[in-house]
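Support request from a user on the community tier.

User writes: "When I paste my structure tokens into the form, the page sometimes reloads and wipes my input. The last time it worked, I copied everything first. Here is what I submitted, just in case something in the input itself triggers the reload:"
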């Protein structure tokens, strides 16, 4: 009887882990696709010499940072998903949450900071980028510390 209860408990835990992994996988692929598409849009702005993009150096730099960080962090999230699914790490839920939030906040901070610039200064929404960066660093450090021995 006790073994049966343990098996059911293990199945429930595995199912919860599977859902979490699928959700992480979905977020990583959607993020990669979205930020790569944004990069293609930026290439179009350059190709068609869109003056609102070309004339503002700060906006151009922040949009490039948004594209690069978004795509790169999507790949990091994919790597995280693979290591969790292979049971190589057992991170705390807060670390996975921080990583997921950070992969959204950091690139959006750059993007939103560059939409309306004041000369060489981004707008106040740029503050989302360092918050996202700290969140990602917390998640990655926690992943490193939770590697299965």
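"...and here is what came back when it finally went through:"
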């Amino acid at each position: 009887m006790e073994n049966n209860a343990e098996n059911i408990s293990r199945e429930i835990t595995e199912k919860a882990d599977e859902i979490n992994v699928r959700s992480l996988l979905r977020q990583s692929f959607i993020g990669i696709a979205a930020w790569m598409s944004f990069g293609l849009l930026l290439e179009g702005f350059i190709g068609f010499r869109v003056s609102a993009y070309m004339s503002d150096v700060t906006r151009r730099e922040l949009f490039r940072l948004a594209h690069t960080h978004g795509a790169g962090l999507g790949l990091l999230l994919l790597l995280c998903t693979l290591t969790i699914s292979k049971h190589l790490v057992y991170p705390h839920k807060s670390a996975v949450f921080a990583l997921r939030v950070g992969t959204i906040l950091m690139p959006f901070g750059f993007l939103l900071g560059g939409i309306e610039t004041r000369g060489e200064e981004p707008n106040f929404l740029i503050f989302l980028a360092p918050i996202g960066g700290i969140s990602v660093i917390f998640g990655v450090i926690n992943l490193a510390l939770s590697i299965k021995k």
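Agent notes: The reload is a front-end session timeout and is unrelated to the input. The chain is about 80% helix and 0% strand. The helical segments are 2-47, 51-54, 57-85, 93-115, 128-145. Escalated to web team.
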